[in-house]
Amino acid sequence: MMQVLPIQSCANTKKDQSPGRLIVLTGPSGVGKGTLMRSLLQRHPQLYYSVSVTTRSPRPGEINGKSYYFISRSKFEQLIAEGEFLEWAEFAGNYYGTPRETLLNQVQSGKLVVLEIELEGARQIRTSFPNALSIFILPPSFDELEKRIRGRAQDSEEAIARRLCRAQEELKAADEFDIKIVNDNFETALNEIEAALFK
């Protein structure tokens, strides 16, 4: 496990500035957290979205540098060795990670910084940033989750099976998080996230 800077390093030096905060959004693959995040950012452009780095291939419509930074496995492993990630994890055969320096600078400057990451990475962030607000997105049912994953028509049967197996384990972790939101009705779920961030 890499060394992570303590939360004190993100303290603000300017007294007239509101403190920044880290918000972690997680949940199983297919639960709709990416769609919720996109809508949240459209409604609240003042939020800073930390773009993750991944070794998986882009899906249709995804843009490098906006959806993710898409890099090779060897490059990702080089960045791990150089300590460039605040957190990283391997999921469904691909690496995912959060760039360290930019995120810390944004929190330090007083921004609300939102991360949409996998469970393992969310746990790493919670350990390093105990003051982060953590939100777990749940599906209305496991059957609905499977329907959504299959409906994307982007994964092989083997990849779908891996995601569903992983999702069963991830759902057991929901109680570890500050807030649980069921994404049954999209607008309701989005409103609940907004209430948690801006109350």
How do the helices and strands line up, and which of them pair or pack?
Layout: E1 21-26, H1 33-43, E2 48-49, E3 53-54, E4 69-70, H2 73-81, E5 85-91, E6 94-99, H3 100-108, E7 112-116, H4 119-128, E8 133-138, H5 142-151, H6 157-171, E9 179-182, H7 186-198
Parallel strand pairs: 1-7, 1-8, 2-7, 3-4, 8-9
Antiparallel strand pairs: 3-6, 5-6
Main location: cytoplasm
InterPro entries: GK/Ca_channel_bsu, Guanylate_kin-like_dom, Guanylate_kinase, Guanylate_kinase_CS, P-loop_NTPase
Subcellular location: Cytoplasm
Order of strands, widest sheet? 2-7-1-8-9
From N to C, what is the helix and strand string? EHEEEHEEHEHEHHEH
Amino-to-carboxy terminus distance: 34 Å
> Roughly what is the average pLDDT, rounded to an integer?
88
Query: Considering DSSP H and I runs of 4 or more, what fraction of the residues is helical?
Result: 25-40%
Number of domains: 1
Radius of gyration: 17 Å
| Main CATH class | Alpha Beta
Here the CATH topology equals Rossmann fold
Q: Could you name the ranges where pLDDT drops below 50 across 5 or more consecutive residues?
A: 1-16
| Total count of strands | 9
Catalytic activity: GMP + ATP = GDP + ADP
Binding site for ATP: 27-34
Domain Guanylate kinase-like: 20-198
Main location: cytoplasm
Summarize the structure in short.
This protein has helices spanning 33-43, 73-81, 100-108, 119-128, 142-151, 157-171, 186-198, and strands spanning 21-26, 48-49, 53-54, 69-70, 85-91, 94-99, 112-116, 133-138, 179-182.
